[in-house]
Ubiquitin-associated domain-containing protein 1
Amino acid sequence: VCTMEGAEWLEEVPEDTTVEKLKERCLKHCVPGSLEDPKTVTHHKLIHATSEKVLTDTKTVLEENIQDSDVLLLVKKRAPTLLPKMADVVAEEKRKQEQKAPDKDAILKATANLPARSVDRSVTHHNMRDFQTELRKILVSLIEVAQKLLALNPDAVELFKKANAMLDEDEEDRVDEVALRQLTEMGFPESRAVKALRLNHMSVTQAMEWLIEHADDPSVDAPLPGQAPAEAPAEGAASSAEAAAGPSSEEGGEEAKDELTEIFKKIRRKREFRPDPRAVIALMEMGFDEKEVVDALRVNNNQQNAACEWLLGDRKPSPEDLDKGIDTNSPLFQAILENPVVQLGLTNPKTLLAFEDMLENPLNSTQWMNDPETGPVMLQISRIFQTLNRT
């Protein structure tokens, strides 16, 4: 056995001796004083010189495979890291606190003697929403222009019949028959179940919750915004049948114009805003009136948190502002109308459908931006807005 100080000696022990007992015998050779202090033993270790392995105290010489004439090193363990003193901990915490950013009270105290300046925070808020607000106004005005242009097209009625067929395929307007049957089998009236499913994206569970929550609501059976009573479609079908029968030459133009007007109305009804029923309930539970809750959700595209901020804030823009178009004499609108790509796009019924959809569902704008027919039009509008907004 060797020590780090250079002492050497020979130890002879039976194979069943534990490493700990061997270590105690070794310590008697090199450590002065008594070995009664347990720290003396635990603060040293034996290492096999050839394998450089630290021997385990609880194992025997045989288990550690120590052979005759093997060399062991008796090494004092490194002292454990001392715990920091309380004064040092306090000093470190104080240093961290000094490096922290000041809180609101500290800022107010430091700036108490500075001259006050009026900052209109609403202006900043509105500037952030400028593009969204202006784009909506642009779409409102472009829809009017597109409708007038398309009305001049002799094939407009046929074009919009095809467009309406596209809208009729929209899953949102179709009712899941299986879901409807589940609700009617529970005892809910069919018309009420249809309304609940449409409001809750065909989710049976959410529709059922809505029906239970609105069971005593006097307006529960009122049709959704833009939807005609049940008998209205039959009348519409009859008028369509009469139109298909073939109008007289004198009345043909007037009939086509009326039919096109009805088609435009139908498109708008399909794109009517539908508030998220869960958001409506959550906001009404805060004490807001149902009408103002619906207005808030409409202004903020069914985003509950944004709607809550709108209700608690200055309520700008107002719901009425959403239906206002851009000034048709403004340089921005003139530049948009003079763009050849936009002009060509306004003669395409699909562009009108895209404008209507984005007006009521701004989150769908990405879909129309990626569409090969409507994407170029939206790109030109965006570029013109950004260009004129910088000048």
Remarks:
- The radius of gyration is 41 Å.
